[in-house]
Amino acid sequence: MHFLVLIVVLCFVSGAIAEDDASESTQRDQSSQVAEDFSHDGVWKPKGAILGGVFLPPPALKGITLTIDHDQYEVTVDGEEHSDKGTFTLDETTTPKRMTIKSNSGPNKGKTILAIYEVKNADAMRVCYDLSGKAFPKEFKAPKGSELYLVGYRRQAPDAKDSKPSTTFVPVE
């Protein structure tokens, strides 16, 4: 289960060509605005996840909760005694955007995890973590045999910390 906590910490998701060109420009503009106005703060649940090419089953996902408050995070996993807590910093000057996660307590204490992230909308983001901590992932993929973990998160209503997410898998790519 400690590995599952590590996975979560590593917890912060196309028509005609002519139409796509016009809509992509509009979407980029809207996405940029969402990113500028986006607040990571809140309670997040994984909607779908892939670890080294293997999909995590819904029962594993529903027991995971990520809580973000400014630059602090906490990951709890049902059945685990200790949560993973730490800090993260964001680099929004790169494409894709980067996140550096440092665990201060819990099963990952002392570990640094490198990740990339993308804001999908006000209530959805996806994150790709390099569990080895060696390099930032280059794309939102977690191929078989890699130490990459790709997860799509959905923000929960303020009082829904203990709510259960849908068991229907939604692709994160």
What does this 3D model show about the protein?
An eight-stranded antiparallel β-barrel has the order 1-3-4-5-6-7-8-9. Mean pLDDT is 78; it is low at 1-35 and 160-173. It has one domain (2-13, 40-155): Lipocalin, CATH 2.40.128. Helices cover 20% and strands 38% of the residues. A hairpin with a 2-residue loop joins strand 3 and strand 4 (72-77). It has helices spanning 2-9, 17-37, 58-62, and strands at residues 42-51, 54-55, 64-69, 72-77, 84-91, 97-105, 112-121, 124-130, 148-155. The chain contains three helices and nine strands. It is of the alpha+beta class and 173 residues long.
Topology (elements, then pairings):
Elements: H1 2-9, H2 17-37, E1 42-51, E2 54-55, H3 58-62, E3 64-69, E4 72-77, E5 84-91, E6 97-105, E7 112-121, E8 124-130, E9 148-155
Antiparallel strand pairs: 1-2, 1-3, 1-9, 3-4, 4-5, 5-6, 6-7, 7-8, 8-9
